[in-house]
Amino acid sequence: HVSGVPLEVMLDGAAARVRLIINVCLDPQARGGGRFRALIEHLLAQAAAAGHAGAIGVANGQSADGFVRALGFQDLGSLPAWLELAPHRLDGERALAEARFARHWRPETLAWRLANPANPLRVVARDSHALTIEGRSTLTGVAVRATLPNAGLDA
After folding, report:
1. Could you report the average pLDDT of every consecutive run of 10 residues in the chain (155 residues)?
2. Do β-strands 3-11 and 130-136 pair in parallel, antiparallel, or remain unpaired?
3. Which one of 4, 6, 41, 117 is most buried, by most CB atoms within 10 A?
């Protein structure tokens, strides 16, 4: 099982479409026969045919080595997570100016994401540079927040 989702991003300051590769899962009995590589190479060929600028593989501990070693993906490291105990202040203008890669949100893609019935999200703070989005986590009483660039979004 694997999913390949078209994704709009900012790459070195320019809008681009890439393929987000997620949910890679192989039955343990099917491992070792080249199926992982075949699945990912199929998605990469689809992305190239669609004119996508590249692909992003979101890997877990079992698939990360396959992405890097077998397929030549660049390991960008783990996604950071932290517990916020006080209001977080992000210098969004500086972060966006220095970013080589950022998710590009359009009003309709953000509205779709906010309305996810499995985990509805809400905007809890915004300024001229960023939106802070909040949703529930699997831990009782703990919310999860993400800060998104506010490139003209009206949420």
Report:
1. 81 84 76 81 90 84 78 72 55 65 78 81 80 80 75 56
2. unpaired
3. 4
